[in-house]
Write a structure and sequence with these properties.
heterodimer; A: mainly alpha; Cytochrome C Oxidase, Chain A; B: alpha+beta; 5-stranded mixed beta sheet
Chain lengths: ~575, ~280
Amino acid sequence: MSGDHIHPEPTSFLSKYVFSHDHKVIAKQFMWFGLVWLGIGGIMAMMIRWQLAHPGDPIPAIGMFLFPRTDGVLDPATYNTLFTMHGTIMIFLGLTPLMIGAFGNWCIPLMIGARDMIFPLLNMLSFWTVFLGGCVGLYSLFVPLGANEAGWTSYATLSTTIGAQGHGETLWAVAVFLIGASSIMGGINYMTTIIRLRAPGMTWGKLPLTVWALFLTSVLNVLFIPVIGSAMILLFLDRAVGTSFFTPASLMQGGGGGDPILYQHLFWIFGHPEVYILILPAWGFVCDLLSFFARKPAFGYRTSVGAMVAVTVLSAVVYGHHMFTTGLSPMLGESFMLLTMIISVPAEILFFNWLHTLWKGNLRLEVPMLWAIGVIFVFGLGGLTGIYLATIGTDIFLHDTYFVVGHFHLTMAASALFGTFGALTFWFPKMFGRRMNQTLGKIHFWGTIVPLTFVFCLMFAMGYSGMPRRYFDHTSAEWLADLQHMNVMATHAALLLGAFQLVFVYNFIKSRWWGPAAETNPWEVGTLDWTMPTPVPYYNFKEIPTVHTGPHEFSHPALGDDRDWIPMTEKLPG
Amino acid sequence: MHRLKTLLSTRLKGCAALLALLAMSGVAHAQEAAETANRWGLGEPASDYGYRFTDLFWFITLLVGISFVLVLILIAIPVIRDRARPGHKASFDHGSSLHDKQVTTVISVITFIVLDAWVLVIAMQDLREAYWAIPEADQEGVYQVEVLAQQWSWNFRTPGIDGEFGTADDILSNSELVVPVGRPVSFQMTSKDVIHALFLPEMRMKKDVNPGDINTSWFQATRAGDFTILCAELCGYAHYQMHGKLTVLEEDTFNEWEREASKLALTAFDPEDTESQWAWDWEQ
């Protein structure tokens, strides 16, 4: 922990930018990696939407290049692959690397006052493992007999050799395993770093809420990723070696026999915590950003932490609500329904604290603040619609309809994405020493939130009208054909949403290399990361700082009139 | 007041442009809508427990709607009123006093009772009285159906006149199911290959159909007519085409149909055709 063990800064290109041990470089590697995959996943979403609105029409512009054999028209197999990989990519290769890989790496050492992660080599390994996982996932699209077409959940037996012949499915399992291994490495590293390397005075009660959220995310990662890892090993064995963990005896020639429902249990024991793995960091960003830009202490710091801990614990015991139509025993079903509903209590406490943080503040509606408020909005919509799905009586009808698609996109996709955009625009000046264009940032925000809300709220109407998800063409069934107008509307709004992301791409790339220079602390906040010079020096802190005040002491009466903030390293006057 | 006006004029311009774009697409659709019959929402349910879904759905919508409007108001007020401006300072409040904790607790309890417990009680009642109250086999008038799902069609088997499964007069059909009105229809189902889900939207019934396991479900039709059978669980290439027709007949017409179909099944029965002899004993 002492300062006498600093290695010299690496000088070669490879050790400095590629196989770097520096958490700041690794953070940026994760960031670019995540952004590229976010783009790929987004283009897949656009193609899915196009097919739904205009079944059988060639995809404009890119269709001819991607699917030359069919003149740009999607076939059902490719369509299934697209939504499968859209889900897999967005969750495992887009949002996870961005929120946890990039901001976990960037925020944790800088915000707790550490020189680096406690295991820098493991940190590097974590990035290169997810990179390898991404490569395997990409390669799985181009192998003989087809890519994964079984959905991101890849339920057995559709994912075993009974339902999927393609090597793509096998490689998909390998890819998810590798990505999971990377997350476990990251999780162990983050937890240990936060426990062991906090600067003197940085007590658990003074940690920025971002760090708290990343800590809890790491706990979930370390506890539950091994479950999906084991499911992937079993699936791999079923496919490659001919075991039958997930194939029932009635389907096996020559004995053996397992249970396809076992896969669902394993998948969702991981899968539900995964939702919170993605949402907790966003909650952390929101807790901090609201306070930073409302120039007010985060309301109810301790109850917010308590609520996040409660959600972390509860997330482990609610997974059964994904399986209400599977044929769970009534007692299990009712227990899971009750436990799921209890989650609304900690969620409500967080909303209460967020809204209270805004109340009577001095709101600076800069771009990161807009995204933070946007999270309250979309998570409000998404979280409240969760009640319909937690309630078995309504879930029986809504299960596997577009209602579910709207719900989880608003909660884990839109909220996590908005949180990521908030974090990106907030830490950009410290990461790259330049400022992003505020006007373009606001255009991007409004161009995202309006069509996004429209698309996913429309999906609630679709689901209520009985439209099943994962259908290649809804016009094929007579009863669904008269719902097609909603598909057309949703697609147009989604294309608009996609188009507005180009504003972000332009703004991000232009500002990264040609943006105006940023001040050291443009947002005037007191956490340790902003006390540092820009660019942040190699090994961060020449001397480990001592922390005296909390992260959110804004507008403290003792500060007088000339400033409303105080660095955590300073003592409050008086 | 003046601040509010300037705010509205500047901020809303951007949103207005966006909304206009959406509206344009909306108008185009409205014109289309005039030509084809576009549906919003669900028609009347055709099963006797079907009303429970709609009732509970709109009850939750009422609770959720009130909560969401409350959240919107609590965002809007500070965003309009408490904007940063010279000379304005935020109040200093950690929200950690005993009073704050009491308020938090009270609101949590109210949330739990109103949003959760209330809905939970109704849902439990629905489950016990309807969705999970699967009729016993020996109950008067139960019409039993065995379902064998496969990629990508539905095989249905009903016991025929003798009321026994696995006999020569079993009525077999593919993708078409005929049931009587006003009698409980009880399903036992399994799959040949992957997981499917039997979805009867007008009956508000859905249940997964798993290989290697028998799942049960039921409904009771309230009116005669033609209805939809869909597959709700992704089952591969032609998942979207795995639909069928559910015909509900009046008691008299149904009895006649059943007699005819059973007689036809007897003459068509081929003991060599093992493929079609997939029946199992009705399990309790």
